[in-house]
Design a protein that fits this description.
Layout lengths: L11 E4 L6 H16 L5 E6 L5 H14 L3 E7 L2 H10 L4 E5 L8 E8 L2 E2 L3 H12 L9 E3 L3 H11 L8 E5 L9 H7 L3 E5 L21 H10 L3 E5 L6 E5 L4 E2 L1 H15 L4 E5 L4 H9 L3 E5 L3 H11 L3 E3 L5 E3 L9 H14 L15 E2 L3 E4 L5 H14 L3 E3 L4 E5 L2 E7 L5 E8 L2 H22 L1
Parallel strand pairs: 2-3, 2-4, 3-7, 8-9, 8-10, 13-14, 13-15
Antiparallel strand pairs: 1-5, 4-5, 5-6, 10-11, 11-12, 15-16, 17-22, 18-22, 19-20, 20-21, 21-22
């Protein structure tokens, strides 16, 4: 019996050898192959991150796909954006990336792509339904390997970026897939690179590869200050999320990075559309507007942002989590290595250090993401009840993804996570006192509703 909980909003994810056995993984391959054939698609490129189970799972996914008649090209152990690039370069109909992303080492998962776009939502559930029905198409597909995709990708990035002056860069690959790929790109662009934890190791022995958590950036910050580097770059395990540290050792968060990128894009493309999500600062949306752009607040999730960018013909998008998307001069998918290169390009052209690039942005006080345990089967209902409570009180509410209340001097967000049994909260205000006041008011109400539902 397959655990239905592994079929998440954006991908398939579970515990290795508990949720994801070899048999389950082969069935995912059979189901995805069947799903593709229903759209008259058959060529698939597969890759995997460096987790201990990823190579084994690649083999079982390939087995399932070829049994449905799909032709499979295996590009080996690669970053997720290299898998996306391979779909474009090799002109396949779709792809599968075996990756646990930033989950703990005992997890793994699958990003399933039609073209370079990851399927999500109802389409992920269709894969589950095909497996539960157990009726798969039968065929005899081919299997081959392609061994030079990392070199192809590196060459492409180097040819399409330009660093105007030498920079000193510290790169923390977190023992993930960026290690054999990103530092060499930055060296070829003319940077002096200090590389931390670049050996791939699926046990992640030095720190968890999630660059949005301050604790995981401690060594990066320390090394940036020691080397008097221009910037520090951190990557998650599969290299689709970026973290950044300025020359003073301060973290540059996802919405701040998007502000920096957007200003640069808007110089060449006035009135361009910029997509972000409900967790991003009011400063971001105001800044895009102030620089002539069209900001759109959208739902959280890399698949959802990519789809919205395509719909709105946006040139750039980004999330607090570090997923950055460039249609400007690139393919539109989330690529932390390319995003890092674009940041180096911007720094090299500027007469200001990274720490001063947003010095004109108003000071805001905000919290990190606050996660409150809440059962999967109740979390969405509870958010709706909270939203209804504040709507009755005539608050200014954006309900695009949960509930974002806007006040004259701040905002509050309550949304259900699409990947975990938690509610995600975030708060921002013009002063520390007001931040505390908003947070206390909303969190008290959230705890009330959770208690009432238990």
């Amino acid at each position: 019996m397959i655990n239905p909980q592994i079929f998440r909003e954006y991908d398939i994810r579970g515990i290795v050898d508990k949720d994801l056995t070899d048999h389950v993984v082969e069935n995912i391959g059979l189901a995805f192959g069947t799903y593709l054939h229903k759209m008259n698609l058959r060529t698939v490129v597969i890759g995997g991150d460096c987790r201990l189970s990823s190579e084994r799972f690649r083999n079982h996914i390939a087995s399932g796909l070829t049994k449905t008649g799909c032709d499979v090209i295996d590009v080996g152990t690669v970053p997720t954006p290299v898998l996306y690039y391979a779909i474009t370069k090799l002109e396949t109909d779709g792809g599968v990336m075996v990756t646990g992303s930033h989950n703990p080492p005992d997890f793994n998962g699958f990003k399933l792509c039609v073209g370079t776009f990851s399927i999500y939502g109802e389409d992920i559930q269709k894969i589950r339904e095909i497996i539960e029905e157990g009726v798969y198409l039968s065929g005899k597909g081919s299997f081959k390997t392609y061994d030079t995709i990392i070199k192809d990708y590196q060459d492409y990035i180097v040819e399409n970026l330009k660093i105007d002056r030498p920079l000193t860069v510290v790169v923390d690959s977190g023992n993930g897939t960026a290690g054999p790929v990103a530092p060499d790109i930055f060296r070829r662009l003319g940077c002096e690179v200090m590389s931390l934890y670049e050996d791939m190791d699926g046990t992640f022995p030095n720190h968890h590869p999630d660059p949005t958590v301050k604790k995981n950036l401690e060594k990066l910050i320390e090394t940036v200050l020691e080397m008097k580097a221009d910037v520090g770059i951190g990557f998650d395990g599969d290299s689709d999320r970026i973290g950044a540290v300025d020359e003073k050792g301060e973290i540059v968060w996802g919405d701040q990075l998007l502000m920096i990128y957007s200003r640069e894009v808007l110089k060449d493309h006035p009135e361009a559309t910029v997509i972000s999500e409900v967790k991003s600062s009011k400063n971001l949306y105001d800044d895009v507007r102030n620089h002539g752009g069209n900001p759109i607040m959208w739902k959280t999730g890399h698949s959802l942002i990519k789809e919205k960018m395509r719909e709105e013909k946006a040139l750039i998008g980004g999330e607090m989590s570090g997923h950055m998307f460039f249609s400007d001069r690139y393919f539109g998918f989330d690529d932390a290595i390319y995003a890092a290169g674009r940041l180096l390009e911007i720094i090299s052209k500027s007469d200001k250090p990274l720490s001063e690039m947003l010095s004109d942005v108003p000071k805001m006080y905000n919290t990190p993401e606050i996660r409150i345990d809440c059962p999967d089967d109740k979390k969405f209902q509870i958010v709706e009840e909270i939203k209804h409570f504040y709507q009755k009180k005539k608050f200014d509410i954006n309900g695009i993804d949960g509930m974002r209340i806007t006040f004259d001097d701040g905002w509050a967000l309550v949304r259900a996570s699409n990947t975990q049994p938690v509610l995600v909260l975030r708060f921002e205000a013009t002063s520390e006192a007001r931040l505390e006041e908003i947070q206390k008011m909303i969190m008290g109400k959230v705890e009330e509703f959770i208690k009432a539902a238990s």
